[in-house]
Amino acid sequence: MNSYQIHPILQLLTACLFCYQASAQTTVRKIDNDWTLMVGEKPFEIKGATFGYAKDVENYDHYFQDLKSLGVNTTRLWATDKNTGKLLDVAHTYGIKVMVGIWMRHGRPGMEDDDSFDYLEDKKGMEVMYNNALKVVEKYKDHPAVLSWGIGNEVYLNMATDAEKEAYSKLLESICSAIKQQDPNHPITSVEAWTFGLEWWQQFVPSIDIYGLNSYGPGVDLLANELEKRGIDKPYIVTEFGVTGEWDIKEKKNGVEVEPNDQQKYDAIAKGYQNWIKNKPACLGVYVFHYSNGNDFIAPWLLTHYKKMLRPQYWAIREAYTGQKPINAVPVITSFTLPDSEADSGTWMPVSLGVSDVENERLDISFYYNQRTGSRKRRNQINTLQFRGNLREGFEIQLPKEHGPIKVYVNVKDSFNNVGIASTAVVVRDEEAKQRKYLVAKTSLPFYVYKDGTGNPYIPSAYMGNIGSIEVDTEHTDDVHSGTTSLRIGYKAFQDWYGVGFVDPPNDWGEILGGYDLSGAKTFSFWAKASKRGVTAKIGFGLIDKDKPFPDTAKKEIEIKLTPKWKKYTIDLKKLDLSCIRSGLVVVSASYGSPHYIYLDDVVFE
């Protein structure tokens, strides 16, 4: 016996700590010509879903419990934020691993977003991405829920030239090799659409352990052959997967891509997993896209939830990973057609609709539309259609004030909260809509530029003046005017001027179509104060001049002397063209001899 003894509680804590650390180790091994992912010393087959509820912290327990019930054992994030630590904690509670994403900016607007980053010239920006990657790894590398690192997403797809791709590849290798030194316990994945990254990874990024390939529809069955043709002896993960996406659709109706029906969406996941993914020796598994809720164009097509209702994709994940059928069947839309002719806006058009439901539940019917022209946000919007009628006597829809092809949806909801969705297309004529110069997203009034910190329509990315001394906190919690947060803009210098523009798209100065149609608004108002007396600021909206391809159609500001007390300010909008406001808030001020803060709240067009 030793001359000393460890207290039993300390023994237990020590054992738990050892398990905690050991469970975090992930390795990749090739066994009998098959690639295998190991967590600890146990094989781990990725049965994943990408995770879209990162901001809904209060409901993490519900989501991860739900994912576990669907047979999901890992989720994928594209990036980290202030909630990631909590997310990892809850995921670990339910035995779910996480591919932690590290975001890399895109070289041009495209499929993924409207960003534009210069990998040939912006050395400082690349340094920011490099440092951020290492900070993320250092912060989370010892968490037991971490499965791997997922660096970037479809960057090569959203890049114009080979020179840029080579520059990005070299940055990526520097990041991956540094992570390997920092964290030898988790493999590194970089993610690209289809096979667009393979030749660049092969030549320039040897430190990637696993190739992450986003692929939709039956094309995913070809990935293994694509790697073999290139002589790539590395494993891959299908990092996004679902039914064939709009970008690969060839068939059109009235100029609109024909969306797969609900059964095709279900089968792509439930059968596609078994037939195209599970049986590939180099494939470590899949993350189905996308366990999330939405109310825009992508939601009916690819998401598990639409307007908080369950879609066939939700139940398909359950069958793919557990073999179990849906607890309650989604209503089936057996037919949905409109007259195949052009019609004027305002016209009432008859609808031919057939539906069925296995459980014979009460069904609620509603109609919506979407159009695929204009800014990204406009293309993504799904708008309500006026309709009348019932299942027994038939329905009519009223065509909206749009010009050109529109996509029309019917939603059929049952009492279990399932929703079946079908779509078709029709061409609408409207002379006034035809004359619109800037096709941007519709809005309803009041339209809040800032309210309680999250989900705001404009991003503070247009920094001006002494930009190095500006701080922006969109979720400041001390002494707010209303709600839970306010907007705080800090200036840390003792001299010079500064400005912040809240814009859409972010990081753009008028080269990309964006913003919102705020026609009908009569006033622009906001509450504001400063941290000290003597601070004067110009506050308003509109920043982009008409020398740019896509300017603000109106600009207006007022100069005010702020005090330490909240006060409301209002700008009259009469006779202004508000059809494209891409800079929803602009604040310009100066040091006035010392640093200060400006606070704003309830910034609204109404």
How does this structure look, described?
The protein has 606 residues and is an alpha/beta fold. It is 21% helix and 34% strand. It contains 12 helices and 36 strands. An 8-stranded parallel beta barrel has the order 4-5-6-7-8-9-10-13, surrounded by 5 helices. Strands 26, 28, 29, 31, 34 and 36 form a 6-stranded antiparallel sheet that branches. α4 (123-140) packs parallel to α5 (162-182). The radius of gyration is 26 Å and the shape is globular. It starts with 7 loop residues before the first helix and ends with a strand.
SSE order and pairing:
Layout: H1 8-22, E1 26-31, E2 34-39, E3 42-43, E4 46-51, H2 60-69, E5 74-76, H3 84-93, E6 97-102, H4 123-140, E7 146-153, H5 162-182, E8 188-193, H6 198-204, E9 210-214, H7 223-229, E10 236-241, E11 252-253, E12 256-257, H8 262-277, E13 283-291, E14 293-294, H9 298-302, E15 305-306, E16 309-310, H10 312-322, E17 332-337, E18 343-344, E19 348-356, E20 364-370, H11 376-380, E21 383-384, E22 386-390, E23 394-398, E24 404-413, E25 419-429, H12 431-434, E26 447-450, E27 459-465, E28 470-476, E29 486-491, E30 497-503, E31 523-530, E32 535-541, E33 556-562, E34 567-572, E35 583-590, E36 596-605
Parallel strand pairs: 4-5, 4-13, 5-6, 6-7, 7-8, 8-9, 9-10, 10-13, 14-15, 18-25
Antiparallel strand pairs: 1-2, 2-3, 11-12, 15-16, 17-19, 19-23, 20-21, 20-24, 22-23, 24-25, 26-36, 27-30, 28-29, 29-36, 30-35, 31-34, 31-36, 32-33, 32-35
Helix pairs in contact: 4-5, 8-10
